[in-house]
Amino acid sequence: MSIEQKPKIIAIVGQTASGKSDIAVDIALFIKKNLKKFNTNGAEIISADSRQIYKNFDIGANKITKKEMRGVKHWLLDVASPRKRFSVSQYQKFSKKAIEHIIKEKKIPIICGGTGFYIDALIYETQFPKVKPNLKLREQLEKMDTEELFKILKNKDPKRAKNIDSKNKRRLIRAVEINILTGKPIDNLKKESKFKTLWLGLSVKNSVLLKERISKRLEKRLKNGLVEEVKKLHQKYGLSWAKLESFGLEYKFTAQFLENKITKEEMKESIISESVKYAKRQMTWFKRNSSINWTNSKKEILNLTNKFLN
RNA sequence: GGGGAUGUCGUCCAACGGUAAGACUCUGGUCUCCAAAACCAGGUAUCCAGGUUCGAAUCCUGGCGUCCCCG
Fold first, then answer.
1. CATH of the domain at A81
2. Which pLDDT tens digit goes with each residue over A68-104?
3. Within window 203-232 on A, which residues have Cβ closer than 7 Å to strand B?
4. Do A74 and A198 belong to one domain?
5. pLDDT score at A185
6. I want to staple A43 with a disulfide (CB 3.0 to 4.6 A). Which of A108, A163, A208, A290 is the partner?
């Protein structure tokens, strides 16, 4: 009974440059054409992308344009300032609101993006400890090495110490931070999802092809003003080069080019090869999820959608 | 044609004649608030043929390849 009541959502995941955004709009329009059949008022898209979330990150983040949206409403684009820190828990809050709004209107939410951590946080409602990052504490912890941090954690929270990467400083600091600020070990219960989800995965299996796609896409974006965008982010919006570099890929290497640290050719090469690596890491994340239907066929995707909504 | 230098993982680069190391790439993986991040694991090499030696990437001879200088 309760299974029947679970709201249905569609999640489109996959690597960069696999065509997710476009297919998401296709699905939304397909639903729009069959409102009566699916007993719904339509579909709206929630982006799950840790870079497209930022205002003024357009070309570099490969954000969908108004025109490409084809009239379908998109949520969680341009909702954060790149000058402020943004993290998964904020994404979780924002996306939860969006999803509730969409469901209230009797529409189908379509989550689309390449940031697996964000998507899982939304769908599985990952319980993040209610401890905000404490920069002062982190500064102190930063001075210790991984061994010391691991020792502290082992003492205070042996359970967490068991499954943490003992050499991953960033994670160790976070774990110790949680413990110090709450005085409690963290409990890691993974909840069942309250949604009924159709998982669709797009991928480019051939790495040569993937590289080709990424480089073609890059040429197009250079023509569209990628370099100018990054320059503007620095000059007009006051983002430091270091900050821009911290966003990775396009922003990182374009910033380095503008700083005269690398040539334009090197910039292109780095963006392409690092994007390929990123795509692989994305797949490592998604591969764990056995519910994902992997297909690149639009026809098959619409068929699956059709079955799922009936 | 003459002289010199040099050949080690896919790439860069180490190794007093004594276990062929490291970085990057590659492959796989981890993930409870930086996730385009951070981190872990694994694979692959001594140009060829002889010689010296208990033992050769290392020394010797020849071949082949590459680079530089002179002509």
1. 3.40.50.300
2. 999 999 999 999 999 999 999 999 999 999 999 999 9
3. 207
4. yes
5. 65
6. A108
Q: Cβ-count burial of A211 within 10 angstroms (0-12 exposed, 13-18 middle, 19+ buried)? A: middle
In this structure, the answer to whether residues A53 and A171 fall within a common structural domain is no
User: How many structural domains compose chain A?
Assistant: 3
Q: How far is the CA of A165 from the C1' of B2 (A)?
A: 63
User: Do A26 and A119 share a domain, yes or no?
Assistant: yes
Q: Which nucleotides of B are covered by protein (CB under 7 A)?
A: 25-40
pLDDT of residue A189: 56
Q: Please give the residue range of the domain that contains residue A175.
A: 135-182
CA–CA separation, A178 and A168 (whole Å): 16
Low-confidence ranges of chain A (pLDDT < 50): 1-3
- A70, part of any domain: yes
Q: Considering the entire predicted model, what is its pTM?
A: 0.91
**Nearest nucleotide (C1') to the CA of residue A90?**
B33
Do A20 and A113 share a domain, yes or no?
A: yes
In Å, what is the separation between the CA of A208 and the C1' of B49? 40
Name the β-bridge partners of A13. A201
Contact between residue A25 and residue A90 where contact means Cβ atoms under 8 Å apart: no
Domain-located, residue A187: no
Which amino acid does the sequence have at A194? Answer: K
Same domain, A118 and A47: yes
Tell me the pLDDT tens digit for each residue of A10-43. Answer: 999 999 999 999 999 999 999 999 999 999 999 9
Q: What is the pLDDT of residue A184?
A: 66
pLDDT of the residue at A186: 63
Q: How far apart are CA A192 and CA A205, in angstroms?
A: 30
Statement to judge: residues A80 and A198 lie in one domain: yes
Q: Which nucleotide is nearest to A173 (CA to C1')?
A: B38
> Nearest residue (Cα to C1') for B27?
A280
- Residue A56 tokens read as 């003024």
